[in-house]
Amino acid sequence: MNCETLSIPMTNPHLSERRVIMPQGIIGFGDIQHYTLTPLVLGEGTGLFWELQSVEDMDTSFILMSLPRLKIGETTISDLDFAAAIKHLGINPGDVETYLIISIEMDARGEKTVTANIRAPFVFHSASNRGWQVVLSDPKYPMAQVI
Predict the structure, then answer these.
(1) Phi, psi angles (nearest 5°) of residue 83
(2) Which CATH topology does 18-146 take?
(3) Cα dihedral 63→66→71→76 (10° resolution)
(4) pLDDT of the residue at 6
(5) Which GO biological-process labels does this protein carry (predicted)?
(6) Where are the domains of the chain?
(7) pLDDT of residue 45
């Protein structure tokens, strides 16, 4: 996904980018492990949407949406499900920032649908600059929740 193609404004120059090392990469992009995480400015809001940009392949980037309370719309990721998904990382759920990977699809009429992957959120541990895409085991979490 390319921000320019999606017509999303540039990043906020007042907020610093963060380096992210992803030992396993993003699902489907496992060979790419080094990224930057930068907040996007949409209108007057900052901090809700982020760009995860590969530094190894400039054509590879993802739009992320911050999920501070593990809730989006009517869907809440349970604390137990989230803790189980990150247990193998050896970090406390309270020590990570959680984001959803956003997809934008355009139909034949040119109408866009924006969805969030709730089943496989991205977690970032700022103390180690490490990030992971984790998969929640319960199928009740949708892979394409319209937002």
Answers:
(1) -60, -40
(2) BH3618-like (2.30.290)
(3) 60
(4) 41
(5) bacterial-type flagellum assembly
(6) 18-146
(7) 60
Contacts within 8 Å (CB) and 24+ apart, 47-53: 49/8, 49/102, 50/99, 51/3, 51/8, 51/11, 52/20, 52/26, 52/99, 52/122, 52/131
Neighbours of 140 (CB within 10 A): 11
Q: How much is the pLDDT for 46?
A: 64
- The reported pLDDT for the residue numbered 47 is 75
- In angstroms, rounded to a whole number, what is the distance separating the alpha carbons of residues 9 and 40? 7
CA dihedral 14, 122, 147, 82 (to 10 degrees): -130
Q: Once rounded to an integer, what is the mean pLDDT over residues 67-81?
A: 89
pTM of the model: 0.83
